[in-house]
Design brief:
alpha/beta; Rossmann fold; Helicase, Ruva Protein, domain 3; 2 domains; two-stranded antiparallel sheet; 9 strands; disordered N terminus; binds adenosine-5'-diphosphate; binds magnesium ion
């Protein structure tokens, strides 16, 4: 019976806490937490080369101050994962954990598991217990990004809800409860609602999260992002060509099955510039752009004709 057990809360003498520091301590770089939205926006741009809409940062920070989880929803390649990870890291001052979801995720993958061989000889106890990222994030007081939440099962989502709501993790086998130390531990979830192959999120889930919608940026914003990303590259991409590339990408977003995200625009410009570099040039030309475009933008047979047509309409070579 749970009520008869001696439930300990988090403490430094806890062998699991020690284990977490041993396993994850080395990958958690510590710096001062940054919690002011304007300061976060500045760091996102300077340190992470991410140009983020201010309202995204403001709402995320407001949610964190309320200890509420945030859901970033939007099409692929709009920066959800990278922006989420960067904000969590700045917020806690420690590297955030990223958990890419899949159908068969369960508590053993995210909270902790027992080493089968050690458990056989020593039993299911602290010695054989292997802490996993969600428990580690809570103990280390850092953020966790739960990526593509719709890919996980409903059971998994319910388990998460309970933890996120109560800000504590119970490990029954160890008779222990771990409680959030401070607001450094925050949760960002991501999802793509347009992907019909994925599960719906339950009402209970949606009720608890602060939802922030991600969309494709305006052509002007996308240009700013691409320029920010190309900064410091020795090979130049002429501005006229960049505008044409952004036009192609926008055409494809309206016509193809695979919709290129900002991530693809950036990948395309980077590949074109590296391609020019391998040819010994200092400026990207239309031929490089077409070659790189075919390599980056064609993701399936159905789209091939559309991509090629869009490319040749813009770059008549
Ligand atoms: N706002 C942005 N600022 C800078 N780069 C961006 C931005 N949005 C998208 N990107 C590009 O997309 C990549 C990140 O995309 P990602 O986080 O994987 O998207 P998502 O998780 O929405 O699929 C970055 O490496 C960058 O190339
Ligand atoms: Mg993502």
């Amino acid at each position: 019976m749970i009520s008869n057990m001696a439930w300990d809360t988090i403490d430094v003498d806890d062998p699991i806490v020690k284990k977490v520091y041993e396993i994850y301590g080395r990958v958690i770089e510590v710096s001062s937490p940054i919690r002011n939205p304007e300061a976060i926006l500045k760091k996102l741009r300077e340190r992470y080369k991410l140009l983020v809409e201010p309202y995204i940062v403001y709402i995320t920070v407001a949610a964190f101050l309320n200890n509420r989880p945030v859901l970033y929803e939007g099409p692929p390649g709009t920066g959800k994962t990278e922006i989420g990870e960067a904000i969590l890291t700045l917020w806690s001052g420690k590297n955030a954990f990223v958990l890419p979801c899949s159908e068969n995720y369960d508590e053993y993958r995210v909270i902790g598991d027992f080493h089968p061989v050690i458990a056989m000889s020593k039993g299911f106890n602290e010695e054989s217990f292997i802490p996993r990222p969600l428990l580690a994030a809570l103990i280390l007081n850092t953020g966790i990004l739960i990526d593509e939440i719709r890919r996980s099962s409903e059971e998994f989502q319910n388990m998460l809800l309970d933890i996120i709501d109560k800000r504590r993790i119970i490990v029954p086998e160890l008779k222990r409860v771990y409680i959030q130390k401070d607001i450094g531990f925050q949760v960002i979830l991501t999802s793509n609602p347009e992907d019909i192959a994925q599960n719906e999120l339950s009402d209970a889930f949606l009720r608890r999260v602060v939802r922030i919608k991600f969309t494709y940026p305006s052509p002007e914003k996308e240009m700013e992002i691409v320029k920010l990303r190309l900064e410091g590259n020795s090979v130049k991409v002429p501005e006229k060509i960049l505008w044409q590339m952004i036009k192609v990408v926008n055409t494809l977003r309206a016509t193809t099955m695979y919709k290129p995200g900002v991530a693809d625009t950036v990948a395309w410009t980077m590949l074109a510039s590296k391609l020019a570099l391998t040819k010994g040039k200092t400026i990207v030309d239309e031929k490089d752009v077409i070659e790189a475009g075919k390599a980056v933008l064609i993701k399936n047979l159905e789209d091939e004709d559309n991509v090629i047509t869009a490319l040749y309409e813009q770059f008549k070579k």
